[in-house]
Amino acid sequence: MRDAIKHLRRTELIEATIRVIGRRGFSRTTLAHVAAEAKLSPGIVSFYFSSKEGLLHETLAHLAAEYEKTWTRSVRAVGDDPVAALDAMIEVDLGREVCVRGTVAVWVAFWAEMPGRPRYRVLCNELAERYFEQARRMCHEIARRGGYDDLDADTIARGLNAMIDGFWLDLMMDPKRFDRARAKRACRQFLAGVFPAEFGPLAAGAASGRRTG
Amino acid sequence: MRDAIKHLRRTELIEATIRVIGRRGFSRTTLAHVAAEAKLSPGIVSFYFSSKEGLLHETLAHLAAEYEKTWTRSVRAVGDDPVAALDAMIEVDLGREVCVRGTVAVWVAFWAEMPGRPRYRVLCNELAERYFEQARRMCHEIARRGGYDDLDADTIARGLNAMIDGFWLDLMMDPKRFDRARAKRACRQFLAGVFPAEFGPLAAGAASGRRTG
DNA sequence: GCGCTCATTGACTGATGATTCAATCAAATA
DNA sequence: TATTTGATTGAATCATCAGTCAATGAGCGC
Q1: Highest mean pLDDT of the ranges A5-9, B157-161, B201-205
Q2: Considering only CB atoms, which chain B residues are within 8 Å of A209?
Q3: Which of A169, A176, A184, A198 to probe by mutation at the B interface, max B CB count within 10 Å?
Q4: pTM for this structure?
Q5: What pLDDT digit, counting tens, does each position of A179-205 carry?
Q6: Do A130 and A68 contact (CB within 8 A), yes or no?
Q7: Nearest nucleotide relative to A48: CA against C1'
């Protein structure tokens, strides 16, 4: 089972990296810290990764893959109802699994390093692009079905997107001022304003506060 | 005028630091780069600042002071109309003076370093607190005057705040996907949903697209 | 148990970059 | 002009880390 252990160590190191960046910030993350966090010797990192840069890049890729997996899973689970799907996006992004302080701090750390690092930029922007495309499609679909003719669905999708990211920042900067339920409520309030029939107080279906996540 | 030159050099170095972080990211910003950017010798930095850490801290303080200055100025300028004031906040935060890619990138860089750096944390959170307090007050006031009784003004303020921050991230990550006018529109759309009489399409006053900024 | 293979260790090396400081230079003053 | 004061330089020093590698150890087949 040689491949298995290889995979295990790599994952351990990547997860240690995430914890260390979350705790110390990007600029003060050293390989020694990562190795110690993973309870391995300092030399091991270059054995499993081409370089520190390689480890960091794979850490970001890992983070992105994990996030995209949970996110697409939840959206698929609700079938083809765009209202429920949009609601599911809010639920996932601000839910207990994804919206965790340490993890969010690492996302912000990578975002902050994007200037001058094409690889990070490409990875993050491609993910953001796929994510936005979904949100956009849902908003268009809701507008179409609901007969909201003169509504700019792109802008709504961007706005929702931005609000969610902003709440991630809140969580990262000061967990005391972040309130999961309130964050979700604000997002739904925004959607209620533009799609009253679907998300407003009189909406029959998905988007009222059923969930507690 | 010895004090004048002292002040000048310090400002030059701080502004060079901002440019370098904006271009290279936090983790790859060295004193040599900063000095070169300011067209000064490498040794000079320790002459004007206690250490690299000191320079960075003062850079953040400078950034915060500048931001708060322009922001409070604009809000004060509109008098005591809370609708106009809230609108002015959007206008400033997403306007040409404040919402500049390089500067925003530096903000994000400092945010990302907040874990494990109490000084940054305190500075950023105190600023955020003052800012939020304003937004909160305006929302409450609008709700009170407009007779929106069962409206959670705090959540609205948080939501607006988050959306603006999220748009800053958009600008930083990919200027192509950021659109100043659209960002403002999304913010106003959110407010229109919760305060229709003040920000909605039928609102008489301030919040329709007068400005072009 | 014996040897083989591969994972792991941790001391070492070299590079990078913060910091120091003696020497230089320029401006102000006498 | 000579002197003094303080700004500025850049080479030298020192610390920190990434990356290397010979030595060790653990598991596995014989």
Answers
A1: B157-161
A2: none
A3: A169
A4: 0.93
A5: 999 999 999 999 999 999 999 888 765
A6: yes
A7: C7
